[in-house]
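Hi R.,

Here's the chain you asked about this morning:
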Amino acid sequence: MGAQSHARDNKAKVTFDCTQDERIYIKMLAAKAHMNLGEFILSYLRKDFPEKTPNKETLEAMKECEEGRGIKCDSIEDFWEKMGMKPSAYS
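And here is the predicted structure, written out as C-alpha cells:
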C-alpha cells in the first residue's frame, strides 16, 4: 500500500445531484482555481466548519489532568463506572 491509500482511509465519499450544465460549470470553476471538484466544494464549506479550538470547559479539564488532579481510574471499566455508566453499556 502506498502513502496515497493511507491518506484516503479516513475519507468518506459524498455525492449530490445537479444538472449536467451545473456540473460542467462547477468543474470549470474548480479547474480555474486549480482544484478538483471535492477540493473546490469543500473550500467553500470549510469556512463554516466549527473551530478545533477546545472550549473553556475542555481547557480546564485538560489543565486539571496535566496537573495530576481529577478522577483516577485503574481500568476502562473503572472509568465507565465512575462516569455513571452501567456495566452492560461497555460490554
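One quick note: DSSP finds five helices and no strands in the chain.

Cheers,
M.
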